[in-house]
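User: Hey, my collaborator sent me this sequence without any context and asked if I could get a structure. I don't really work with proteins. Can you help?
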Amino acid sequence: MNQPAIVIDSFTPTVSPSSGHDGALPGDLAIWIFIFAEMLAFGVLFVAYAFTRAHNVEMFNDSQLTLSRTSGAINTLALITSSYCVVRAVSAIKHGLSRACAHWLSGAVLLGGVFVAIKVVEFHAKFEAGITLSTNAFYMFYLALTFFHFMHVLMGMVILACVIAKARRGGYSRHDYVGVETGASFWHMVDLLWIILFPLVYIIR
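Assistant: No problem. I've predicted the 3D structure and written it out in structure-token form, which is a compact way to encode the shape of the chain:
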């Protein structure tokens, strides 16, 4: 008795290069725990700033006029452009272009350096004018928020520098780029925080 033939179509699925986290957040999970914690910390400070300002509007507005919106705008442009460089770096490594990835990340670090230099000049000018955390509530928040963010920019630059060094050694490929995505995720957080901080502290009246 002949058995019915069972035909099974064999096929090989096409899998696009990935970091091993399909359907999940890009990069390492640990960096996202850190990012969410930092976002929460900044969120609390932003709310505290808004609440305090609501009870001292005139003083906050007068003190805000001493800030350089031009410097803040340049720094905003620098960080937004640096995030674009990071996006291009991730795209490059997904195509196996390690050198291009390193070059784009180097551009991001350079723009981060522009941000740092401008902030150092701003801080120096305020300290030279005798402004400290105890001057008034506005300057307390201004110095605390911007310095806290400043330290995150420096941390991000160090992280990207480590990623650059590994990329130049061929440590990443189109099949393994978790480290690049991890550094990129942190840098995007730094950019996003400044996009919120700049109008909140420098512009909104």
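In plain terms: Confidence is low (pLDDT under 50) at residues 1-21. You can pass these tokens on to your collaborator as they are.
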